[in-house]
Design brief:
Number of helices: 0
Largest sheet: 5 strands, mixed, barrel
Strand content: over 45%
Number of strands: 5
Low-confidence stretches: none
Strand order of the largest sheet: 1-2-3-5-4
Length: 71
Amino acid sequence: QTDLDLVGLQAKVVRAVKPPHKGRITGYHDGKTFSMPATSGQPIKSGRVVLITAIDEGVARIVVKTTDGAS
């Protein structure tokens, strides 16, 4: 498993992201739990479900997961 395997997966914010400061996410992939620092262009509160859009030098870039078709 490499960090690139995690791009596109869901994770949960366990330490709030407050740009420019990193937060932390955890998730589950291939039978194992992972945890890593994360950044975003917007503040994201702890407990939110996010999508990993990229990983750069061990730091995940994340966006808040939205539900399709929600009004």
